[in-house]
Write a structure and sequence with these properties.
Elements: E1 10-16, E2 21-26, E3 31-35, H1 36-41, H2 46-49, E4 67-73, E5 77-82, E6 91-92, H3 93-101, H4 103-117
Antiparallel strand pairs: 1-2, 2-3, 4-5, 5-6
Length: 136
């Protein structure tokens, strides 16, 4: 008896600009609709994730971000360019599948991080969280 350990691969990627969603249909029959904002705030780039534990940068102000381009990277992923200029994340097929299959938990975790930082999804990135002191 052989077991297939081949991870699912995308059969189709569809950009829905008006609803700001990337729809990914995988070879195992599952289809995920990934909001551009989710893709942007959970970018696998070093700019977002940092270079080690504790260096993550909480992304805010990305609710209205759009995808300007989606370039293939080899046979294993894509590299999006977002409307805020971010384009350094490479999204492997495995990572896109993870984002889709865990979307509800990932959103909940992101919202908890925002609450813990005392910011909202719409807080501009240009304002450092530590300098939100009141002015007199």
């Amino acid at each position: 008896m052989t077991t297939s350990s081949t991870p699912p691969t995308p059969l189709a990627l569809t950009l829905h600009q008006q609803s700001r969603v990337l729809e990914v249909q995988f070879s195992d029959g599952r289809t995920f609709k990934l909001p551009f904002e989710l893709l942007r705030v959970l970018s696998p780039s070093a700019e977002v994730r940092g270079h080690g534990p504790g260096q993550e940068v909480l992304q805010t102000g990305k609710r209205d971000v759009t995808l300007m381009a989606l370039e293939p990277v080899g046979h294993y992923g894509v590299q999006p360019t977002f409307s805020d200029g971010h384009n350094s994340g490479i999204y492997t097929w495995d990572y896109l599948y993870h984002l889709g299959s865990q979307q509800a938990k990932l959103w909940a975790d992101y919202e908890a991080q925002l609450r813990a930082a005392g910011v909202t999804r719409d807080t501009p990135m240009s304002l450092p969280v530590s300098s939100c002191a009141s002015r007199h």
